[in-house]
């Protein structure tokens, strides 16, 4: 049987070679309270603020720096930061979330020399 012949087996090696890039920067304005709950955010606190910001980055550890920049740029709440997946979720008013995301993109592009995407909105 050919499938048991060791000389004909192929070996596939997958490797993540991260670029220096922000791949997603999105603002959700006026999300439904259910979305806050599904994200693990407290709708009784966060929903009054009316916006969620979502960003992803590689290398993933950059999410820590992005969280710091976001909190220094505007009065946002940090919803989630994951140094392993490169995910960052922030909440606040639409203008606070937008200011934080803009500050993140500027810093990461200009200081860290990453490739960044534009901010999208729903």
TrEMBL record:
Subcellular location: Bacterial microcompartment
GO cellular component: bacterial microcompartment
Record key words, sorted: Bacterial microcompartment
SUPFAM superfamilies: CcmK-like
Pfam family name, one: BMC
Superkingdom as given in the UniProt entry: Bacteria
Keyword Cytoplasm (UniProt): no
The BMC circularly permuted domain, residue ranges: 11-114
Protein name: BMC domain-containing protein
Lineage of source species: Bacteria, Bacillati, Bacillota, Clostridia, Lachnospirales
